[in-house]
Amino acid sequence: MELVFDGHNDVLLRLWRTMKEGGDPVAEFLKGTAQGHIDAPRAKIGGLAGGICAIYIPSGDLILKEPDDNGHYETPLAAPLEYLSSLQIGMEKASIALRLEQAGAWRLCRTTANIRKAMADGVFAAVLHMEGCEPISANLAELDVFYAAGLRSLGPVWSRHNIFGHGVPFAYPMSPDTGPGLTDIGFELVKACNRLGILIDLAHITEKGFWDVAKTTDQPLIASHSNAHALTQVARNLTDKQMDAIKESRGLAGLNYAVTMLRPDARDNAATPLSDMIRHIDYMVERMGIDCVALGSDFDGATVPADIHDAAGNQKLVAALRDAGYAPEDIAKLCRENWLRVLGEAWHEKA
Ligand SMILES: [Zn+2]
């Protein structure tokens, strides 16, 4: 079995909803459930040895706008969120992550050595991420506290605007160049992440914001869960020019399993063949090289291909990569080694 370290999931969102409905998120993760995509038993079956787990503040359930006669759609950008309620939800999700660790259900990893040890021990290696920084205020005080709780990765914005910058809408076809980039405070956030050693994730940010981070950061450029715009023209995917910059910085893009970002028609239809995943991987590898492509499933955050179904189906993608002709060392890079390399760099580890 090929162990996978995956660059993006929303399991904390599902577990938080379970908690809000009176359930026990730790028991759900440990014992397993038929809901959603990730829990300990299904991760074990699928070789999902670890991943970057998002603290995401929901904008309500996102409903994609129905396509028009041409198959085009443009879902309006979600409204900005309030700080205090966002902070509360962010704390609740961080608390679930900490309780999972206290229960031995997973390990919160702060170094790549932590990740390798957890994977060797057969314990899910979780890296805490914040997807949209609405729980952080302009003086960045909360950043230090979340860092102390284990936060080692963040995306300044989700697909909405906040005090740090601007996000792209869910729309097809659309360029990622949909508006302004980082605010002045956004630039300060990037500098603080460089100082602390927190990976900066460019998924969901406008193209302008992407270039703003690129000219400011000392880290490799990372889009944790984004695909090729040339194949699926949604605003969330990466243009060739963005991929060239990622390659230049020795960063990476993680393949998003979301069918809306894989299918040529960008429809939310689970009947999406594995060949659509391979087409995006092939394109990204062709453009950026085998060192700059990885996986970023978006498990528990999106509709994934029916053949994958959930974390237990992860090895079907590995088998498809083998069938497509990827060598064992290439598959190891795609499945985990590229993520471990860029995390080590962002976290100031000596090579
Ligand atoms: Zn996302």
From TrEMBL:
InterPro entries assigned to the protein according to its UniProt record, in alphabetical order: Metal_Hydrolase, Pept_M19
Entry's Gene Ontology BP terms: proteolysis
Listed Pfam families: Peptidase_M19
Organism domain of life: Bacteria
One example GO MF annotation: metallodipeptidase activity
SUPFAM superfamilies in alphabetical order: Metallo-dependent hydrolases
CDD domains: rDP_like (cd01301)
PROSITE patterns: RENAL_DIPEPTIDASE_2
Protein name: Peptidase
Organism of provenance: Endobacterium cereale
Taxonomic lineage from the root: Bacteria, Pseudomonadati, Pseudomonadota, Alphaproteobacteria, Hyphomicrobiales
